[in-house]
TrEMBL record:
Organism, as annotated: Hydrogenophaga atypica
Pfam families in alphabetical order: PhdYeFM_antitox
Stated family: Belongs to the phD/YefM antitoxin family.
Protein name: Antitoxin
Function: Antitoxin component of a type II toxin-antitoxin (TA) system.
NCBIfam families membership: phd_fam (TIGR01552)
Gene3D superfamilies noted in UniProt: YefM-like domain
Amino acid sequence: MTVTTLSSRELNQDVTRAKRATQNGPVFITDRGKPAHVLLSFEAYQRLTRQRRQIADALAMPGGEDIAFEPPRVTIATRPADLS
């Protein structure tokens, strides 16, 4: 994976170059020398967003019933409040 860095001016002058560079990795776009944006290919974006699953979705996935998961039971004790 190659990271490409372009200034905003370079991006405006050659958008095609930036789009082609996303095939090799993310393109960092800077404003006044500081990273401000990241340009990704759509495939890279999909890979990033697919990784964020809800725990319920992960537990409901096919084959999930084969995973041994028995968390310990927690007992929460109460105690009277001291209002003195």
